[in-house]
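Researcher: Following up on the earlier apo prediction. This time include the ligand. It's MTE, with the SMILES given after the sequence.
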Amino acid sequence: MADDTEKGNAREGEAGGLTRRSILKLSPLLLLAGCDMTPEGRTESFLRTFQKFNDWFQAKVFDRSRLSTEYSAAELTPEEGFRVNGKDDDPPDIDPATWTLAVEGLVARPGTYTLASISSLPKRVMNTRHVCVEGWSMVPRWGGTPLGEFLRMVGADPGAKYLSVESADDYTTSYDMPSALHPQTLLCYEAYDKPLTLPHGAPVRIVMPTKLGYKSAKWIRKLTVTDEKTGGYWEDQGYDWFAGI
Ligand SMILES: Nc1nc2c(c(=O)[nH]1)N[C@H]1C(S)=C(S)[C@@H](COP(=O)(O)O)O[C@H]1N2
Ligand SMILES: [Mo]
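Model: Understood. Below is the ligand-bound prediction.
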């Protein structure tokens, strides 16, 4: 009897394609690579639910007062080693002289903001580690305005849940509000005490040492304060949305 049942189950498993147990044996990354491996996209909805839980959990344990390590001058990556990385080979066409940052959504003062209005706010300079998901890291010297200072200036709704970002190369990402307000999250306009160069995201990029490198959007052109959770260029391809480190 017991034998029969077992055989029966095995046959059922084969006929039905992936059984639940065999799905669990696969690594999550493998599953993310091929989301539509079951009919009706059931694997996909399971993973979406799991990822939502993961984002919620990471946000719960995220401590806004916990700072990412700041390094001494001796520990800096030398400027020659300040690596460039991005989805495209060439930077987008941007004229830093006429650049403005658009601000929309749940803010008291929407509009477009110049680099001068950003750099007149308090400045933070920090040597923090940038960690790329591709398996390398570096410690550049960043300088800019804490994003929280800017969000206060534009009158962002303190109760809003998210901030989404659009860049000039059609790159997008989005953050939970506590991460956007973290004191080391910068609207960065300098590196190594000089204006940010175009390959690194000039005139203004995000630097967020509490998260993986793909959350540090370069060439930003629009910020939207919202209660809707938007994804991002890499996030929509299965990369972690919270991406805390
Ligand atoms: N707009 C935009 N921002 C981006 C990217 C991109 O392709 N476009 N790539 C991200 C990734 S994966 C990394 S590792 C860092 C690289 O920043 P860097 O060129 O200053 O090293 O930028 C991030 N921000
Ligand atoms: Mo990256």
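Model: Residues 4-237 form a domain with the Sulfite Oxidase; Chain A, domain 2 fold (CATH 3.90.420.10).
Researcher: Noted. I'll compare it with the apo version next.
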